[in-house]
Amino acid sequence: MNSANSDLIDFKIRHSWHRISRMYNQKAASEQMTMSYGFILMFIERKGTPSTQLGPKMGMEATSLSRTINAMEKDGLLIREVSKNDKRITLVYLTEKGVEKRKLVKKFILDFNERINLKIKKKDLEGFYKVMNVVDDLVDDILEENKLINEKV
Amino acid sequence: MNSANSDLIDFKIRHSWHRISRMYNQKAASEQMTMSYGFILMFIERKGTPSTQLGPKMGMEATSLSRTINAMEKDGLLIREVSKNDKRITLVYLTEKGVEKRKLVKKFILDFNERINLKIKKKDLEGFYKVMNVVDDLVDDILEENKLINEKV
Question: Which is the most buried residue in A141, A151, B72, B129, by most CB within 10 A?
């Protein structure tokens, strides 16, 4: 199976994501950040984002997310404030420095995606999205099947 | 940018890999394994694989790889032996139990890929691979560009 691994759709996706995250981490390091910093910057909204919403949005574990947010607060990229409307909610806001870094991150992400788009035909991109959507739907089905099996056991 | 994140090619790949790895981890847990166990089982060859080759093949960090290999040896899935031809090399072999688990993993991976393939058209799959190859090549270019910039600084 070894030689054929790279032909498998999921191995291709895994390999690609590993390479992309390596690239993002390399770029982030040159700005004294990590890839996770970049993603968090992108997901925080101007009106403040409840800290509990960041994890599910980003698919990050709670402990690793809260460690990263602490580090980012220490680095002056964001602040946390209890919501005026609901004292149970902590909102995360970007500082001025955070907004600056967010611009850099956004530019890098958009440039990267634009460079890809320049090199591919529309019909290939449509094929890509169709395959990715089939994969997503199938993964959802299998997660649901396994949940049902586990509940029976 | 938030609402548009999911249209970005790299965000789509990231999201997809997160979902796939969740599925694999769920399945692996039902066999008292982790996804990393499964990948390592798939990458070990019958004639023995040098332990130092596993990391680069799998894109796993050395420390996390060696921790996982230790755990797998303790669980009786593999053994390590110094190579008879070169005493500096440690070879990793699957045990009988390891071979059995490998069959399960292989079946799960191939079934998953077959179920995807049944749902997509050949031309869409071609588009998918074209896009993934463009992404891979561009990531390589950017990693190289950044390396040159960092060397200059």
Answer: B72
- Which residues are bridge partners to B79 per DSSP? B93
Q: Find tokens 């690793």 and name the residue.
A: A64
Measure the CA–CA gap between B1 and A15, rounded to whole angstroms.
Answer: 26
Residue A123 has pLDDT above 50, yes or no: yes
CB-based contact A120 B134, cutoff 8 Å:
yes
Q: Are B37 and B28 contacting, i.e. CB atoms less than 8 angstroms apart?
A: yes
pLDDT in tens, B69-108: 999 999 999 999 999 999 999 999 999 999 999 999 999 9
Candidate from B13, B27, B123 with C-beta closest to A20: B13
Q: Do A127 and B132 touch (CB under 8 A)?
A: no
Q: What is the rounded average pLDDT of the residues B22-32?
A: 93
Report the candidate in A80, A95, A141, A47 with the shortest Cα–Cα distance to residue B2.
Answer: A47
Task: Indicate the SS3 state at residue A93.
Answer: strand
CB contact under 8 A, B23 and A139: yes
